[in-house]
Amino acid sequence: MSDPPRLGPVSAGPRPPPGTGAGDVRLVGFADRVSVERAQEWVDRQARRLAAVELGVAEAVGRLPIAPLLAPQPFPLLDRAMEDGYAVRSAETVGASTYDPVLLRVQDGSVPLATGGAALVAAGADLPRGADAILPFDAAQAAGPALEVIAAVAEGAGVERAGQQVQAGAPLAGGARPIRPHQAGLLAAAGIERLRVVERPRVRLVVAGAKAGAGGRGADAHGPMLRALVERDGGVVEPPEAGIGVREAIRRAAAAPGADLLLATGRTGTGPDDEAPPALAEIGRLEIHGVALRPGGTAGMGVVGALPVILLPGDPLACLCAYELLAGRLVRRLGGRDPGLPHARLEAEVGRKIVSAVGFLEVCQVRLASGRVEPLGVAESGGLAAAARADGFVLVPAALEGYPPGARVTVHLY
Amino acid sequence: MSDPPRLGPVSAGPRPPPGTGAGDVRLVGFADRVSVERAQEWVDRQARRLAAVELGVAEAVGRLPIAPLLAPQPFPLLDRAMEDGYAVRSAETVGASTYDPVLLRVQDGSVPLATGGAALVAAGADLPRGADAILPFDAAQAAGPALEVIAAVAEGAGVERAGQQVQAGAPLAGGARPIRPHQAGLLAAAGIERLRVVERPRVRLVVAGAKAGAGGRGADAHGPMLRALVERDGGVVEPPEAGIGVREAIRRAAAAPGADLLLATGRTGTGPDDEAPPALAEIGRLEIHGVALRPGGTAGMGVVGALPVILLPGDPLACLCAYELLAGRLVRRLGGRDPGLPHARLEAEVGRKIVSAVGFLEVCQVRLASGRVEPLGVAESGGLAAAARADGFVLVPAALEGYPPGARVTVHLY
């Protein structure tokens, strides 16, 4: 009973260059860690743009066009009524009043406007040729074919000019942001029915089982969380294969193509059963292990063939943080999105001191109290429960030991 | 050709009380309009809570629990290691240094710690009884069964106490916000595998065809936009039946149950073909028509039997605004969500004057330029294209005629 547990076989794969922290850390600890910036550069190097797929406008909401979408023609195409009323020549209404009404003659709106004519039009209808304004109903009284105009209307009133909303060639959507609901409406209105969007990144997920020594407890907290996070970032998660370990999953990933990214959670640390990094080193290439990130510092990165593999820590909060800053960045990049954190941001003042360790980028869970930022404990102490209670998080750069009260910080909102 | 178009049959249904703006407005205009606040009160009265459905934790992300979810037990259940290392009695490490190491004896971690014992544990593992700290690997050197401790460790170091993250009975998720990805992780970690969430509101959608007089142009901008908006708010849209008009859709809705809300877009204004409000008045009850909202002022509301019906304007931007403030509010309420606008918010300073009409709640599309708010044209002028270019919108209350430069406003971000 007094022998220390033995290690698994030590990596037989090519050894990474020094300074990447990718040596075997089991029972030893991390000799050095890669900065978050360098780990993100690794992520960015893995990101090749995925294939395109053509979709209808309705299906394309939340997806990323492969190129900015430009208006094929002006919108609206012709001058049109912006409101219901009578299309008129504004000059013919000058001087009209209740006491001295101007008489116009009601005609059909599908033919050019006759001199002294007025045509009933609905909002959105093309303006009859010759008309230059819409007379609202409360400025006129119809009496059979005659229209009594009791107020003048200015040129252009109630009229939307051709191209007023969009000139031909103007961008309608695209860039690095997914299509929003109302942009889909605009695309449809502009006559774009189908468009090409970037394919969703396919993410294969391996979740290590409960830790040895945790008494068999600890339901899979990672699967539900990561699936939802990957979907938020535009990816799709392959249904995880049950009952296979990290080593076997990495082996199968090398043999079975079809995924764009392998995420393996758990067994990334310095404990005796932390087999994920040596398994990746053995089967593929472990390029980074240990990141100056808290929580999340045991994350690792590498490749099996052309497939990027990211090893996420088993602690759920560390897993969340490493996902947001590293793995999620790759999911977003692969799908062509903005690689930065996708959370809404708020600038706010620190109300209670935020403490952080120098040398690590710290992810501090915070809540907003009367508009001021308050930390929920330090770094790892509150676990995922702190994140679940938090309004968002603040990133404290590695060079700082925190933020004093009164400092302005950016809160990434959940 | 000179006869004015004739109206359809005038409503034979019960007439609404005066002051609701629900008289027949065709060719006449709105005599009065209901304030947005009163229209929202109508929405709130329609909202009965939907049934519950039981889901697994992973499927429940983005859904709303029917009641707050409480921790069934403390989490973690027992004291456990927060990091990899050796579980020790901290008192036995006092005075340890490189020059004067303390010798401990490595034992198994599944039995209580012997006097002078140290047990290798992985982060997340239960602490052996008797241990009160985790000695990191860099503070010890193993030599066979002996462990040379070269630095002292404080009581509680590296240990997460039972209940430190969550006390039994503490809320884990719920309230009026959908479950977030990391909350799902926490629920799973706390042993909650399935939960009951509010059923999704089922929304039936009717999209009126292109306006008479618009030359047959104008693809359906509403369907894709509304589908995406309803889904954002937690609802599901029934596939719309093609080729049926508003009148027929309202008639069918009365006969065929199964939806929680009918949204009909288009034909809500004062033009001759604006048949939606009179059709609702005839078949069911038109309770409000005309809202002091810009854009979106021709919106209408009523019921067919027990089914709420909201009539959304045909202009796409007006449709968007009336959806966000009225219809979306009902979708969110039905699904048990916070009924307020779901957009992230930002307080910012107005950089360029925002002009608005007194008497209407105006939805002003804005962009942020160097952190300051700039309007994109006034009210309706930019159409949906302005919204597509905007970073968000500002609501200008009916009592104000706008905001001067320097005013602090809330931007609802797209």
Give structural attributes.
alpha+beta, Molybdenum Cofactor Biosythetic Enzyme, Chain A, 7 helices, homodimer, Molybdopterin biosynthesis moeA protein, domain 3, disordered N terminus, 414 residues, Molybdopterin biosynthesis moea protein, domain 2, 6-stranded mixed sheet, 26 strands, 4 domains, elongated
Overall description:
Two copies of one chain form a homodimer. With 414 residues, chain A is α+β, with helices and mostly antiparallel strands. Chain A folds into four domains: 36-51 and 200-334, MoaB/Mog-like domain (Molybdenum Cofactor Biosythetic Enzyme, Chain A, 3-Layer(aba) Sandwich), CATH 3.40.980; 52-75 and 164-198, Molybdopterin biosynthesis moea protein, domain 2 (Alpha-Beta Complex), CATH 3.90.105.10; 80-160, Molybdopterin biosynthesis moeA protein, domain 3 (Beta Complex), CATH 2.170.190; 344-413, Beta-clip (Beta Barrel), CATH 2.40.340.10. Helix content of chain A is 18%, strand content 27%. The first copy, chain A, has helices at 36-46, 181-189, 222-232, 246-255, 276-283, 316-334, 383-389; strands spanning 52-56, 69-70, 80-81, 85-88, 102-107, 117-121, 133-135, 140-143, 146-149, 159-160, 171-173, 194-198, 202-207, 236-237, 261-265, 285-289, 293-294, 300-304, 307-312, 344-350, 354-355, 361-369, 372-375, 392-396, 402-403, 408-413. In chain A, the strands form seven sheets. Chain A has a six-stranded mixed β-sheet, with no helix packed on it. The first copy, chain A, has a six-stranded mixed β-sheet with strand order 14-13-15-19-18-16, with helices on both faces. In chain A, β18 and β19 (307-312) form a beta hairpin. In chain A, α3 (222-232) runs parallel beside α6, α4 packs parallel to α5 and α6 packs across α7. Chain A is elongated. The model of chain A is unreliable at 1-19 and 212-218 (pLDDT under 50). At the A-B interface, β5, α2, α3, α6 and α7 of A face β5, α2, α3, α6 and α7 of B.
